[in-house]
Specification:
45% helix; 7-stranded antiparallel β-sheet; 373 residues; globular; two-stranded antiparallel sheet; alpha+beta; 13 strands; single chain
Length: 373
Amino acid sequence: MPLEPFKTSDPLTLGVELELQLVSLSNFDLIEASPDMLDLLKRKPFPGNVTPEITESMIEINTDVHTSHTGLLEQLHKIRDTLVRAGDTLNVGVCGGGTHPFQRWTERKIFSKPRFKQVSTLYGYLAKQFTVFGQHVHIGCSSGDDALFLLHSLNRYVPHFIALSASSPYFQGRDTLFNSARLNSVFAFPLSGRAPFLLRWEDFERDYFQRMEKTGIVNSMKDFYWDIRPKPEFGTIELRVCDTPLSVERAAALACYLQAICSYLLERKEAAPAEDDYLVYNYNRFQACRFGMDGTLVHPKRHETLSIREDILTTLRTMEPYAQALGSIAALEHLYDATHKGSDASFLRQEYAITGSTEGVVDAAIRRFRGAI
C-alpha cells in the first residue's frame, strides 16, 4: 500500500510504549496469560492503551501524547498500578526487563492475530525468539523532513539510550556478559539496524519506500525493525533501541531525555548529519550493548574515543536548559543518579549474586516494577 503522508504533529510532544513480561508467580517463568489479562483489562477504563504482542507471554502498553515529564510519569504510574492489580487477580506477575532470564523460546505460543501469524510464517523460529521486551519512544515532528533530520542526527546518541536502559544481561538461563542481550535478537531480522540515509521526506517516500514496496518485501512501515524509524501516521519518529526498564520512573526519564536532545538538535547548532556518521555506528551500538556505560564510543564527526558514561554525563549537563524549558528537569536528575549508580542490568546481576538464582532475579524485577524496591 502507498506510504501514508507524513502527519504534522506538535513538535517535541512525546509518547511511550512498553512491552512487558507476564510471569507465573509459582515458578517465575513466562506464562501464556495475555488473553486473560487483556480480557480482564477491557472490563474497566484503562489509563492509556493495552494491546497483545507477538507471543502470549507479553503485552504492550501505550501512553497518551504528553508534553512534559510530570504528565507522562503520572499516567505511567496509573497504568502500572492498574496492571499490578489485574496481575494480582490472575496470580500473574508483571515486570520489565529486556529479556526473561531463563524462558525457553520453544515453549512460547504465538498470539492469535493475523499479523503475528504472518510474521511467524515468514520468520520461523525468530518470531518466538522475539519474546524480548523493549521501550519505544515517539517524538512529535512538524514535518517529514524534520523527522528524517532528527532520525539521523540522533545516531550519535543511540549508545546512551542502550546503556541507560540496559536490563537484559541474562538469556536462556545464562549471563550473556552483555548488558543488553535483547538487541542481538532484534538484529537477526533482515530489516533491522539503521534507516537509509535520506533527509527529504519526498526522497524517502519516492526513492526508497516505493521501490522497496515494488520488490514485495514490505507493505508498510511496520515491516522495518530499524533502531529509529519514522511513523508518518503519527507524525513522529520512534526510538526503538531501549530495553524495557524495570521501573516506570526510568521509562519516563529516558523519554524526556530524548525529548530534550531533540529540542537541542532542532536548533541545528551541531554539524548536519552525514552518511559517514554511520561508519562507527555498529561499533558504538555493540559497545553499549556489551559493556553498557562502561563501554566506549567513537564520535562520528571527530573520531575521538569517549567513555559512554562520561559522554552521557556531559550530554546531561548540556541538556539541562532544554529540559528545564520542557518541564523535565526531574528526568535528567533521575538519569544522573542512574549513570553513577548503574543500570538495571547491574541491579539484576546484584540480585543474582544475592539470591543465587535466575528465579530470584525475576522476583526482584517484579517487585521493582511494583515500586516495592
